[in-house]
Amino acid sequence: MQTNEIHKILKQNPWFASLPEDLAKQLQQKCKIKHLHDKQLLHQKNDLADGFYCVLTGRIRASNFTLEGKELVLTWIQPGNWFGEISLIDGQPRTHDAHAEGSTTLLRMPKSAFDLLMATHQSWQRHIMRLLCQRVRATFSLIDETGCLSLKGQLCKRLSLMQQGLEEQHQGTMAKELAISQDSLAQLINSSRQTVNKILQGLQADKVITLGYGKVVILDRSILEALSQI
Fold it and tell me: What distance in Å separates the CA atoms of residue 180 and residue 162, rounded to the nearest whole number?
C-alpha cells in the first residue's frame, strides 16, 4: 500500500484530519504496516499494550466473553479509526480481545514511539486527550442505549451508526450497504439471531432496509434514527 493511499484513508477520520500537519506526518512516519488474516488475534484481554493502531483495510472485532463462554461484541473498528491508546496511557492491560474480521491491514505505532511523543509534544497530549473524550462520550451513549432502548431501538441505532461510519470512510458519498451477518448483529446487542431476524424482517417490510446474504442495505436512515429513540 502506497503512502498516499494510506494518507487518504487516515484523512477520512475526523480526529486524524484535525491534527496539525507536522504532527500527522510524524504519526504516520512512526507507524509500520501490520497484516492479519481472517480471525487472527491481535491481542487478548489482559495483554500488555504494545502499540497504537489504525485500521487501513478490513476491520477489528473488539469483544469479551462471559463465564459461560458467550462472546459479547463491543464494537467493530472500521478503516480510518485509531485504537489502543488507553492501555498505553494508564499502563494497564488490554480490556478486551481484538480479532481481525476478513483480511485486515493495520498501521502500528510502537509503544516506545507513542511514549516519546507523549513526553515531548504537548500538542500530541492534547489531541490524545480529545480522542479519549470521544471514547468517554461513546461509552455514555452506549450505557444510555443498553439501559433505555428496546432491542429494536438498539439495533436501529447500531445500523444507523454503522452507515454513518461507512459514509465517513467514503468521504461523504452515500454508502448504503453494510457487510454484516445477522449473527454478528445479534452479538452486538447481546440478543439471539432469531430475535434480530424478526426485527430485520419487520424493518424490511416497512421498506427501511433490504436484506441480502451477509449484508443489510439501508434505504432510509432517517427512519432508523427515529426508531433509535424508542
Answer: 10
Confidence label for 173 from pLDDT (cuts 50, 70 and 90): low
- So what's the pLDDT on residue 130? 95
At residue 119 the predicted structure's pLDDT band, cuts being 50, 70 and 90, is very high
Cell of 164: 454513518
For the chain, list the domains and their CATH numbers. 3-146 (2.60.120.10), 150-227 (1.10.10.10)
pLDDT digits (tens, 9 = 90+) for 27-52: 999 999 999 999 999 999 999 999 99
Q: Is the pTM of this model over 0.90?
A: no
Q: 29: which residues sit within 8 A by CB, 6+ positions away?
A: none
- Distance between CA 158 and CA 185 in Å, rounded? 9
Residue 116, exposed/middle/buried by CB under 10 A (0-12, 13-18, 19+)? middle
Listed in order, strand segments (DSSP E) in the chain are 32-36, 41-43, 51-65, 71-77, 82-83, 97-110, 177-178, 209-212, 215-218
User: In this structure, what C-alpha cell is assigned to residue 104?
Assistant: 485486515
**Among 38, 33, 179, 180, which Cα is nearest to 103's?**
38
Q: At what angle do helices 122-148 and 21-29 cross, to 10 degrees?
A: 80
Cell numbers for 103, please give them.
483480511
State the Cα–Cα distance between residues 128 and 87, nearest whole angstrom.
12
Is the pLDDT at 166 greater than 80, yes or no? no
